[in-house]
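Why do we bother with holo predictions? Because pocket geometry can differ from the apo form. Keep that in mind while you read this record for pantoate.
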Amino acid sequence: MLRLTGVEEWRSYCDDQRLANRRVGLVPTMGALHAGHTSLFDAAKDHGDVVVATMFVNPRQFDDQGDLDRYPRTPDVDRAMAEAHGVDCLIEPTLAAMWPDYPGPTPTTVTVRGLSDVLEGAHRPGHFDGVASVVAKLLTVTGPCRVYFGEKDFQQLAVIRQMVRDLSFAVDVVGCGIVRDADGLALSSRNVLLGEDARQRALALSRALATVTAAPASASEHRRTLREIVSGAGLDVIYADVVDPVTFAPSGDADSGDARALVAARIDGVRLIDNGPVVLKGEP
Ligand code: PAF
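The structure, written out:
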């Protein structure tokens, strides 16, 4: 596995792959890798791509300094996992290479209005600007590619799809299914911050989503079920909503068909999110 840090060598590597008629599969990460990330490496490998993974903890997407400080960092384990899953080139760009003005403000920001302002965006001001800006930079340096994201961050995926469409990046966005532990907990780099008791109670998120996924109901009923199960387990619900899976407009009780349920909750200071598909049974 090749390891690079500089933007120019990263750009040349990707250019060389395309010149040799190989397709680049980019997997952006912030490190602290788990089986959710390695499933993205495996998906890129299965597509026959040259797998390029980036590891960069992007400070611009953290609205809370404490959250950034606590974010797990396990670079040696990450490198071994990436290599074991067939990553061809691991990019670990420096902060100075990514955001030369940091900690000062970076004048250029990509904002995807609308999608970035609801749910996660409403509770984490500037978060999706930070995500869209860093992903725009990763795609600009990498060049034409397939780019892989997990559906665990379902809203992030929607924001990136919109940005790619609006800015005509020569990129195919591939969304990959959520990877869960055997007990249902969606894998997240933040799970290591949970104590044993908190981890048990955190299962309420996946339980709530499994419940609403299992049977059609109106949007209000789905919202009520999500809240009851999650708050019943002693978690602080940040939001529990049902929205259109593309526009993220809140679903109404007259709506029927496919929608997405998304939940965020805090437990012992750790913020967790999860989501799943639901069917709406419109009320006449
Ligand atoms: O999902 C993540 O790990 C991050 O938001 C991403 C896409 C790597 C951007 O920093």
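The chain has two domains: 2-176, 189-275.
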